[in-house]
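One-letter codes give the sequence; backbone shape is given numerically. An example follows:

. . .
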Amino acid sequence: MFAASWDDDHLSLRHLMAQAMVPGASDEARNQFARDMRDMISPENMVRYRDVVDYIDVRALLPEVQAPCLVCHATNDRMQPAEFGREMAKGMPHASFVSYDSPNHMMPANDPEWHRMERDALGFLASHEPLNYVTRR
């Protein structure tokens, strides 16, 4: 479906994705996001992206992440269950998990939880000194 209809003039497939990713956004914002998706990624690269995202499993690598991480997740995310975010945070040694009462996978600025998420993210960043967390194997 991605390869056949991603680049057409109809919003159908992209609009369904926008609806699933940002259901709490305004109709205008969702429609703009659906239009923008066509410019963000080609149909061929969308197929490649989905092939990777749908089958990748990084759980075995999580203990190697040494950087502090803040895992933010909406409780009613229709793209990824909140339990996936909790599992990811539990797997990293320096991670914390925060959930937000929202249906949005990508939280729009009009989401009631936006200000709380912004405060949490800025607080997290302010509480960690800029350090070089990149390690080489």
Observations:
- The radius of gyration is 17 Å.
- The CA atoms of residues 86 and 97 lie 6 Å apart.
- The mean pLDDT is 87.
- DSSP finds six helices and two strands in the chain.
